[in-house]
Design goal:
Bound molecules: 5'-O-[(S)-ethoxy(hydroxy)phosphoryl]adenosine
Number of strands: 30
Largest sheet: 7 strands, mixed
Number of helices: 20
Radius of gyration: 24 Å
Strand content: 15-25%
Structural class: alpha/beta
Length: 632
């Protein structure tokens, strides 16, 4: 088994060794997996191009490591435990043996649709077991999966399908979320009308049943294609550096980019980080509440836990249905040992009162995790006291879609915890703080830009179809460094606190969004002349979306606001809806025509007393107007 650190001394020794001899350290971890052919070399890299190769020339299939490898020892152990949206609905379980059979059937079904090695398959599905099965089936045959969060709009889906030039979309008919019944297949049809020219088939999983449109040439039922297939499917032999998946994520400019992860390194790192950060022990029930549409679901619902032979729970529903006790009711029902969620969920549930967690027996919990955005002290304390009863270490895990796995986190029961601190890098991870002139900030009690000095196995390899963009965004700011886009401080004892993005990326309810993306959506509205979007502190969401909009105004503000929101929902999805729209006559700009977002951010954050020097602006007079009209 992959190394599982069990004491502070071991953490310190392992960290030291991982830096002094990274190749030896990672070779040891990698050798705990099954390789069809061993790798010739541990690592080849430079951050200039960048060109990063782990476990060079090794051949393997990740699903043999997630599934087949576990059969002798834990074939009858539950691999996936699925809890439905309806609390009275039937729980579904797949043992490792059953999951392997289901993945193989699906893999054979995909082959029958002409899907093979290297083909891209887009998923647009709710949190049903078939999503995990489908993703693994792709990996089984060497197809590349790209999961699109099912809250994205038809336009956003079409953009991603087109960028990936996918051959197949796998979706559901409908989706139950709380009391809502969402027309999933309809969104796929709309996306097909907007593009998706590379799509040959749409494979539809019947989830709730109900009327849907059907096109005989394109649409296929999952049950027709998959159910009669053989439960044996030899795994395709893959190269360590073949692409496992593409996951689209927002940056500070342009359209979302397809972050590319490759097989060998991602496998080694997700298993290693899962075992250490959650201190998973055989027999534990582990639950991550994320959606598989985000990186957290990829790495810590599907791959990490299954590689480690864990029982991983998938939840179809939402935290507040049928009431705000749902998470805690599920923890009691399934005797969850490790629980991993986002600060935004904690804040939302905290606002409903401590009587909700108090109703349930939470004594099975041992580790509580947090991910996706900074966790404020109040939420951290509530989580610690009301959910963990002071007995469960909180692992505030910092990482990104691009990092593939958790890079900074306390190790529960091993390193200490401190509210709002993600704390220490995992062994194998060399975090550094830089000043804006490119100097490394040595010592403690410093604040700077968070970078990583050397590759870890799950680092992104490229952005799909645009390697230059990858170089530019992550590797050009500081020579020889991976730049995260986050600002951070290091306290007196060397713990790291990630403060937030220093670029034009905002984090709304743990969902990552580019302000430019939201602006582009708003600008699609026919009455909009120009817009500027910034984040501002929001009690529940972490950050809210504040839009300043210049219009040729014919309607009343409220009608216009509503129709702008509709356009954003259409272009991106409900998650990108601005919380506030302020109509303005002008936007503060530099003499070269660049919008001064710094000023707009301050105004939106009600911090407009000290806007700094505005005299260099092209139009200093608009600042007063914007300030006066600010929505507070
Ligand atoms: C933020 C999510 C503070 C950060 C796994 C990062 C965090 C971005 C934390 C990546 C944390 C994530 N504390 N900030 N524990 N975890 N972030 O790609 O700004 O959706 O750059 O990956 O979320 O978001 P992404």
């Amino acid at each position: 088994m992959t190394l599982q650190i069990s004491s502070l001394k071991e953490y310190q020794d392992t960290y030291k060794r991982s830096i002094e001899d990274p190749e030896g350290f990672w070779a040891e971890q990698a050798n705990t997996f099954q390789w069809r052919k061993p790798f010739d070399k541990v690592l080849d890299w430079n951050f200039d191009e960048p060109n990063i190769k782990w476990f060079v020339d090794g051949k393997l299939n990740i699903t043999e490591n997630c599934l087949d490898r576990h059969i002798p020892e834990r074939g009858d152990q539950v691999a996936i435990l699925w809890e439905p949206n309806d609390p009275d609905g039937e729980v579904v379980t797949y043992t490792y043996k059953e999951l392997l059979a289901a993945v193989n059937k699906c893999a054979n079904g995909l082959k029958s649709l002409g899907i093979g090695k290297g083909d891209r398959v887009v998923f647009y599905m709710p949190m049903v077991p078939e999503l995990a099965i489908g993703v693994l089936a792709c990996a089984r045959i060497g197809a590349i999966h790209s999961v699109v969060f099912a809250g994205f709009s038809a336009q956003a889906l079409a953009d991603r399908v087109d960028d990936a030039e996918a051959k197949l979309i796998i979706c559901s008919d409908y989706n139950n979320r709380g009391l809502k019944n969402i027309k999933v297949k309809q969104v796929v049809e709309d996306a097909m009308d907007l593009g998706c020219n590379s799509i040959e088939h749409v494979l539809v999983h019947k989830n709730t049943g109900g009327e849907i449109n059907w096109s005989d040439d394109i649409d296929k039922w999952w049950h027709d294609v998959v159910d009669h297939q053989s439960a044996e499917c030899p795994a395709e032999e893959m190269d360590s550096e073949d692409i496992l998946f593409i996951l689209y994520t927002s940056g500070s400019t342009g359209k979302p980019k397809g972050v590319v992860h490759t097989i060998g390194g991602y496998m080694v790192y997700t298993c290693y980080s899962f075992l250490n950060v959650f201190q998973y022990k055989p027999g534990d029930i582990y639950w991550c509440t994320a959606d598989i549409g985000w990186i957290t679901g990829h790495s810590y619902i599907v791959y990490g836990p299954l590689l480690a032979g864990a029982t991983t729970m998938m939840f179809e529903g939402v935290p507040t249905f049928p009431d705000p006790g749902r998470f805690w009711q599920i923890c009691e029902k399934h005797k969850v040992n490790q629980f991993y969620t986002a600060p935004t969920a904690i804040r939302a549930l905290m606002a409903k009162g401590e009587e909700w967690p108090a109703k349930y027996d939470l004594s099975s919990l041992r580790v509580l995790g947090s991910v996706g955005e900074p966790i404020n002290e109040e939420a951290w304390n509530w989580y610690n006291e009301q959910v963990g009863h002071g007995k469960c270490p909180i692992v505030d895990t910092w990482w990104q879609t691009e990092t593939g796995g958790i890079l900074i986190s306390p190790l529960p029961g091993i390193t200490d915890t401190k509210p709002t601190y993600a704390s220490y890098p995992l062994p194998g991870v060399q975090t550094v703080l830089m000043d804006s002139d490119g100097n490394e900030l040595e010592g403690n009690n410093v604040e700077g830009l968070l970078c990583i000095k050397a590759p870890w196995p799950a680092i992104l390899r490229t952005t799909y179809g645009d390697h230059e963009r990858c170089r530019q965004v992550y590797f050009s700011t500081f020579k020889g460094m991976y730049f995260t886009g986050d600002g951070a401080r290091r306290d007196e004892e060397g713990r790291i606190r990630v403060i937030g993005r220093v670029d034009d990326v905002i984090n709304v309810s743990g969902h990552r969004m580019g302000t430019a993306e939201v602006e582009n959506a708003i600008n699609e509205h026919p009455a909009v002349v120009e817009s500027a979007v910034v984040g501002y502190p929001h009690k529940i969401k972490g950050q809210g979306i504040y839009a300043y909009v210049i219009t040729q105004n014919e309607d009343t503000d409220d009608i216009l606001r509503k129709s702008i929101l509709d356009v954003v929902v259409k272009e991106i999805g409900p998650i990108a809806k601005p919380d506030k729209i302020q109509f303005v006559n002008g936007l503060p700009k530099t003499r070269s025509g660049k919008i001064m977002r710094r000023i707009l951010r301050k105004i939106a954050s009600r911090d407009s007393a000290n806007l700094g020097d505005t005299s260099t602006l092209l139009n200093p007079e608009v600042v007063e107007e914007v300030k006066e009209g600010a929505l507070v």
